[in-house]
Amino acid sequence: xxxxxxxxxxxxxxxxxxxxxxxxxxxxxxxxxxxxxxxxxxxxxxxxxxxxxxxxxxxxxxxxxxxxxxxxxxxxxxxxxxxxxxxxxxxxxxxxxxxxxxxxxxxxxxxxxxxxxxxxxxxxxxxxxxxxxxxxxxxxxxxxxxxxxxxxxxxxxxxxxxxxxxxxxxxxxxxxxxxxxxxxxxxxxxxxxxxxxxxxxxxxxxxxxxxxxxxxxxxxxxxxxxxxxxxxxxxxxxxxxxxxxxxxxxxxxxxxxxxxxxxxxxxxxxxxxxxxxxxxxxxxxxxxxxxxxxxxxxxxxxxxxxxxxxxxxxxxxxxxxxxxxxxxxxxxxxxxxxxxxxxxxxxxxxxxxxxxxxxxxxxxxxxxxxxxxxxxxxxxxxxxxxxxxxxxxxxxxxxxxxxxxxxxxxxxxxxxxxxxxxxxxxxxxxxxxxxxxxxxxxxxxxxxxxx
Length: 451
Ligand code: PFF
Hints:
binds 4-fluoro-L-phenylalanine, two-stranded antiparallel sheet, mainly alpha
């Protein structure tokens, strides 16, 4: 087994970088409206079970595979199972998934970056407090042939700069600064939102359990959201696992990341819904919530609203940035390992490719909306592929690999830092990885296709 020199410098660095990957648009934008849609507290309960029972096990599995192999996904699977090199294809699928998710993620991140600028210049504030002009502004901006593309490129360039800085000086240092900033921003917004008149209605919407809304579809959405939110099933945590120092406790690290990610998702709900209800607005789902409803909320707050608007979209952009960094890192590290070219060369090349694809997806919402695949625009098509097909397959393959292909002694050895740690949860971890997680993922995958 070769030893990779690249590694995070400390346990804090590893946790911050992985939390940076996990906390993203999925927490701040997707979690709150999914939670509200499927029964508030009822959904939250199921979500928390999935996150801790299945999501965290997947994360630990990726950490074990990555740290044990000290390779990027394709070679990692091949190294740990030399008799069946075809497992490398699973790694390849993970890398391809990262590529497509990043391209789509860039489009959404471009919008959030654009809205930071629209908040600062007062463009959003000028739209007033009636819904129509605000929705119209978003529709015009997101379908414009040039504007969202410019912000997408700016955001992508920021991601590239961090990756060019390297694992410690780039990813780790940036995450160590941006994650506390993000926590502070979200706390400020929560306090503001919860102290508005009538805020309790929003808290109720988020937390009071309505089991009648928790349908089969809601349960599947909870598992899908858990995987997406923890960034598992696409090789990201596998690559970050290969950077985790040898003396770090994999179980504890994964638990920290899972807990932080879940807390941020809940705090995001508390920052958004009380404000929405306080203004008597409709808690719409999808991009509408963040881009069409929230500007309306900020505009009712006068000058202070401009400040909160800037802070909120900055929060979203910071969260998206550290997630996008982790996705580009998977691509860059894999490319460097397989081509033996300089890291910077691969990073620039891949960044250009994924940005070009992102631009295409962005334009498919406007100028190129006539191009359809199976009746869907390119953006909707990739959204479907990225949520229903690729991540569940990769996640399923990963737990099957860990649970059934890797010798128990190897997994236990890595999990317990070569027997130096006592890890009483190991038996439970192994049991979930072998039986429960594959079954749950199979159900998600099959129902996703059938729905
Ligand atoms: N976890 C990120 C979010 O919640 O927005 C999204 C993400 C990042 C998914 C990295 C997958 C990934 F590999």
